[in-house]
Design brief:
The protein has about 260 residues and is of the alpha/beta class. It contains 7 helices and 8 strands, in the order αβββαβααβαββαβα. An 8-stranded mixed β-sheet has the order 1-2-4-3-5-6-7-8, sandwiched between helices. It is globular, with a radius of gyration of 19 Å. The termini are far apart.
């Protein structure tokens, strides 16, 4: 009888601890060249010690619910996560034409793209909860291209992970400049990434002396990590559950190796 009561008490205590382990989220305003940006910060508010941080750079839709969900999932893994605003005012769209216009404005100015990512990197490093020596970045589609540019720029980031991201660049990395470990998670059937693009990226990484890995996920196309991608406006934009889960699991290994968590 006493044992039974003891077990019940222990279970109740465990549940109470779990209930207190809440993921805190907040909007974080910052600026870049006069443009007002609004990031989305997520972290476990029960943790008291400093911890590694991870930037999340969204798809071309902007800082939407999907990017915010990924930030919360990273916070659940023990990181401070900052979902990045690349456009200003945290704006989003579901219109591919509008998304293409916004992304195109950033892509045409490589310095702007790299600077905006660097601003977010500086912001998260200044957070009192963050171990500024251990910061990574992940990105999706357009955001995957952004984190690769962050690595090419020589930014002090330890690991970048691109999910179905843009791999072409106007300014290939110089030898010895990339400090980050680089992981590219690509859909094997993604027509947005040509064999020539793949070969050029791999040659660039080798020439730069980077620590890189490219993984093709069988049968997956573009946006394979996003459940909202149903192929309705483009058959090359579609979710793949296996590729999503496997790429996330591989990402966790890369982050743990690079950031020590």
């Amino acid at each position: 009888m006493h044992l039974h009561v003891t077990v019940i008490v222990m279970v109740m205590l465990a549940l109470a601890v779990a209930a207190n382990a809440a993921i805190h989220t907040e909007a974080v305003p910052y600026t870049d060249g006069g443009v007002k940006l609004i990031g989305y910060l997520a972290y476990d508010d029960t943790v008291t010690e400093k911890r590694p941080a991870v930037l999340v750079v969204p798809e071309w839709w902007g800082l939407n619910d999907y990017a915010k969900r990924r930030a919360r999932e990273l916070a659940e893994l023990g990181y401070v996560a900052l979902a990045v605003d690349m456009y200003g005012q945290g704006k989003t769209t579901t219109d591919p034409k509008q998304a293409g216009q916004w992304a195109g404005e950033v892509r045409k100015d490589l310095n702007l793209m790299r600077q905006r990512a660097a601003k977010a990197l500086d912001l998260v490093k200044q957070d009192p909860r963050v171990d500024a020596q251990h910061v990574g970045a992940i990105g999706y589609c357009f955001g995957g291209g952004v984190v690769l540019e962050l690595a090419r720029s020589g930014a002090a980031v330890e690991v970048v992970v691109s999910f179905h991201g843009t791999v072409t660049t106007q300014q290939p990395a110089e030898k010895g400049r990339i400090k980050a470990r680089v992981l590219i998670c690509n859909g094997a059937d993604d027509t947005a990434v040509s064999p020539q693009d793949r070969a050029a990226l791999q040659q660039e990484m080798d020439a730069a002396g980077a620590d890189w890995t490219w993984i093709d996920f069988a049968h997956a196309v573009h946006a394979f990590t996003n459940p909202a991608a149903d192929g309705s406006f483009n058959k090359n934009v579609k979710y793949d559950e296996k590729a999503d889960k496997r790429s996330w699991a591989i990402m966790k290994l890369w982050l743990a190796e690079a950031l020590g968590r």
